[in-house]
């Protein structure tokens, strides 16, 4: 990981921040200074990246199409392939982190039953050779046809009906529905002063989460599409699928004035 978050609190002295920036250089990291909040900058920025896909799949979207669309967009792996990282940090850490987001951001946390169904089926990712994918002894992943049954079970538990529109999403639609909530969260982070400038989040998205560098970072990419377009899309989706898509005040204000993020 070439990236380092330096977390400042209200009582952190400027000299400590300067010293830590110097430490970051010495250990060859690219550093940004962030405020102290749930998830800091990086994890908080990208927590919608794991939330929205669950909603889409439970409502009828194809899990493997989602991953393929996102990797075609330029990410190193799709959100469901990304869950293999849970295997590295352990379910305990992943669950504890999820609880923190649920407690702090309940309005935009999708309460999916898919993970619990996966656990019941003793799927732990690469360590068990089964997660959302099947893994061979060389850690190569391949789609698992049995995943359809697990998704159907989770859908029944969540009392969710299949949405035909989500069954027929284009790759472009998938990219927007997964990354626009990430852009929305970036706007909240900016509004709260967790980071000083938008470019900090661009750097963080590229260097820590693998957002394609040729797209310039999450907010640089968002500005190429326009705040009005992103806000209008989120407003439409929020009416259909709930608060998880609701545009924040910062984004709504930028859209109304036609300004960049």
Can you describe what's shown?
The chain is mainly α and 261 residues long. 58% of the residues lie in helices and 7% in strands. It has 14 helices and four strands. The strands form two sheets. Strands 1-2 form a two-stranded parallel sheet. Strands 3-4 form a two-stranded antiparallel ribbon. Strand 3 and strand 4 form a beta hairpin. The protein is globular, with a radius of gyration of 19 Å. The mean pLDDT is 92.
Strand content: 5-15%
Annotation field: number of helices: 14
Number of strands: 4
The helix fraction, in percent, is 55-70%
GO molecular function: (3S)-3-hydroxyacyl-CoA dehydrogenase (NAD+) activity; isomerase activity; lyase activity
GO biological process, one term: fatty acid beta-oxidation
Protein name: 3-hydroxyacyl-CoA dehydrogenase C-terminal domain-containing protein
Keywords: Isomerase, Lyase, Multifunctional enzyme
Produce a short descriptive summary:
The protein has 261 residues and is mostly helical. The chain has 14 helices and 4 strands. It is globular, with a radius of gyration of 19 Å.
Topology overview:
Elements: E1 3-8, H1 14-26, E2 30-35, H2 42-58, H3 63-73, H4 79-82, H5 84-89, H6 91-104, H7 114-120, E3 133-135, E4 141-143, H8 147-157, H9 164-167, H10 171-191, H11 198-209, H12 218-225, H13 227-241, H14 249-257
Index terms:
single chain, 261 residues, mainly alpha, two-stranded parallel ribbon, two-stranded antiparallel sheet, 58% helix
